[in-house]
Amino acid sequence: MKISIDIDDPAPPFAQLITQVKAAVQSGRLRPGQPLPSIRQLANDLALNLKTVAKAYRLLERDAVIQTRGYRGSFVHMDAVANCSVDLSERAHERLQETIAELRAEGVTDSEIRNAFNRSMNGSSAK
User: Where is the HTH gntR-type domain (predicted)?
Assistant: First the structure.
């Protein structure tokens, strides 16, 4: 698996890594059951922070593109090809855009939307 990180790319390194792993799965360069480099090895190879690679692996695992088998390592998920088309981040973005448009149509200001979003993310119900 050939992965490269472009520091001039506006996409963060973890997102570049996710995109490249998904592309490799979709093209057949990575096949179901195939082992992936360890987080430590990939971070070393790409000169990235361990946490950056770990975040990418966590999100790929959440999306069932890869699976981690404890100390045996990470592998391409058996349903990875089908799961590569699922983009929860994009789905969240689209849903938020729809909600923001609805709130603006009701006359809620952007400042009020930001405050409500921050309260919601922080688990606070007070104004």
Answer: 11-79
- Max Cα-Cα span within the chain: 54
Does residue 66 sit in helix, strand or coil? strand
Domain formed by 13-83, architecture: Orthogonal Bundle (1.10)
**pLDDT tens per residue, range 53-94:** 999 999 999 999 999 988 899 999 999 999 998 778 888 889
Q: Which of 33, 53, 35, 36 is nearest to 44 (CA)?
A: 53
The residues with which 18 forms a beta bridge, in sequence order, are none
User: CA 7, CA 83: separation in Å to the nearest integer?
Assistant: 27
Instruction: Name the residue among 41, 66, 58, 53 with its Cα closest to residue 5.
Output: 53
Query: Which has the closest alpha carbon to 16: 27, 2, 28, 29?
Result: 2
pTM score: 0.75
